[in-house]
Design goal:
By secondary structure, the chain is mainly β. The chain is about 5% helix and about 45% strand. It is built from two helices and 15 strands. It has helices at about 15-20, 110-115; strands at about 10-15, 30, 40-45, 50, 60-65, 65-70, 75-80, 85, 95-100, 105-110, 120, 125, 135-140, 150, 155-165. The longest helix is centred in the first third of the chain and has 6 residues, at about 15-20. The chain is elongated.
Length: about 170
C-alpha cells in the first residue's frame, strides 16, 4: 500500500446509553481483508462486519464507506550509496573524495519509489574541525519511509580531508 489511508472513520452506532457514553475510539477498530488485491488504485469497501466495537454496541453506518487504496508491486534494486557528510574541516582544509565501501546497496520497496531513487544515503559523517582523513562505519539509510535497505546495513566511509586549493599548510600535507 503506497497511498495515504484515513486515520479514522465516522461510525454511527446504536446501543444502551450507558455504554455509548463510555465508548471511546480506542475501543473500536477496522480490519479490512486485502487478500487478492492486485496492483493499481482500488476503492476498498468498509463493511459493518469489518468494524470491531464492544459488546452491546451495533454499527449502523460507516463513512466513508469506500477507502481509496493504491497497491504496488514490491521490487528489489541495487543503488549507489552516497554518504552524507556534515560540518567543515579545520582551517585551510576541505573535504576531498568521499568513498563508501561497499559502493552499492540492495534495497526493496514499491517499484515506483525505487524507480525514482538514484541512491541511498548514510547516517551523517561529521568532518567538523578534522585535520586529516576520517574513516567510519555508519548505517546505510533510505530517504523514503517505504524503502527498506536489505544489504549492507552498515558501510565503511572514507572521507579525504585535503589542503584547500591555493593555500599552503605548514608541517606537511594531509
Amino acid at each position: 500500500i503506497t497511498s495515504e489511508v484515513p486515520r479514522s472513520l465516522a461510525l454511527r452506532v446504536q446501543g444502551p446509553l450507558s455504554r455509548l457514553r463510555q465508548l471511546s475510539s480506542a475501543q473500536t477498530g477496522v480490519v479490512l481483508d486485502l487478500r487478492g488485491a492486485t496492483a493499481g488504485q482500488r476503492d476498498v469497501p468498509v463493511d459493518r462486519s469489518d468494524v470491531t466495537v464492544p459488546p452491546g454496541i451495533k454499527v449502523l453506518s460507516i463513512a466513508p464507506a469506500l477507502v481509496p487504496v493504491r497497491f504496488e508491486m514490491l521490487a528489489r534494486r541495487r543503488l549507489g550509496i552516497r554518504p552524507r557528510v556534515t560540518g567543515e574541516p579545520g582551517p585551510g582544509l576541505v573535504v576531498g573524495a568521499v568513498v563508501p565501501d561497499p559502493a552499492t546497496a540492495v534495497v526493496s520497496g514499491p517499484r515506483s519509489l525505487l524507480d525514482s531513487l538514484a541512491s541511498v544515503g548514510t547516517e551523517p559523517v561529521s568532518v567538523e574541525g578534522a585535520e586529516g582523513p576520517i574513516d567510519l562505519v555508519v548505517p546505510v539509510r533510505a530517504t523514503q519511509p517505504l524503502v527498506r535497505v536489505d544489504e549492507p546495513l552498515m558501510v565503511h566511509v572514507h572521507v579525504g580531508v585535503i589542503v584547500k586549493q591555493g593555500e599552503r599548510m605548514g608541517g606537511g600535507r594531509h
